[in-house]
Amino acid sequence: xxxxxxxxxxxxxxxxxxxxxLWPSETHEEGFSALYYGVVRRKGFLLLTGGIGAGKTTxxxxxxxxxxxxxxxxxxxxxxxxxxxxxxxxxxxxLGLRGPFDSKVDYIIALNSHLLERLHAGINTVLVxxxxxxxxxxxxxxxRLLSNLETDSEKLLQIVLTGQPELRxxxxxxxxxxxxxxxxxxxxxxxxxxxxxxxxxxxxxGIAGGQYDEIFGxxxxxxxFAYSQGCPRLISLLADRVLLAAYSKQVRPIPVAMVEKKAxxxxxxxxxGPDESGPGTSEN
Length: 284
Ligand SMILES: Nc1ncnc2c1ncn2[C@@H]1O[C@H](COP(=O)(O)OP(=O)(O)OP(=O)(O)O)[C@@H](O)[C@H]1O
Ligand SMILES: [Mg+2]
Known about the structure:
The chain is of the alpha/beta class. It has helices spanning 26-40, 56-66, 85-95, 104-120, 137-146, 165-171, 177-182, 197-207, 212-215, 220-228, 232-249, 256-269, and strands at 45-50, 71-76, 124-129, 157-163, 183-189.
């Protein structure tokens, strides 16, 4: 809507997990390398955690877009109420396994022979379970059983578990000790630091074809940081609202006061006072 006013080819602050927009902040770059290495080297179990809106899904998509061609990927996203057999069904559907299967054992047998066939064809298979904090302990334990699928020398299935910090708490449960011990590589996405705000905003604006300095006036970055505490989704959400407000008033570059005003309005609308700002509240 406001794109042409700011010389943008497309919206710079859409909330989609589009990997084209991913800025390699320190934590995102480390996470990328860890996951990429873990998948390509067939490390088995990998874990990616981070707060709400930290960039987990976007990072996963960026990794999956870069892995070698000889990789099959199964991305299971909607884990909300999936337990046991449901999860198996979701995984089987993603990998293109044909049923019907009468029991979990049938699924495992079919999965095992599918994975062996792929291995012989030189193909690595990756299963990504996003939002894994939704899985209950029993289902997580079943995911561990999938990680037992291996030959004498290789893991047949690389499993990437992603989720909010509650996932770490779940994995700390003594019942999941065996799973915990199998995690070969893990990374926690931290919020961005204050000095990363301008690069983040500039990168997204640049991908959309524009220039940071022509859109935001000096000092705006510190307001973005105070509002978001470095949570990427909250930064993008505020930026989008600010751009819209500036467009309707036909103001560019955008002055600090305008960013402050929007940030304050948004904090109030979310029921967060300026003192409680932080990534805890997510508007999606
Ligand atoms: N490093 C980054 N560079 C550019 N954009 C980013 C970065 N990290 C996150 N974002 C953007 O922030 C928004 C939220 O990211 P994403 O949906 O990946 O977060 P999430 O951690 O999966 O959130 P949730 O906990 O709700 O699942 C997306 O629009 C994403 O593109
Ligand atoms: Mg996500």
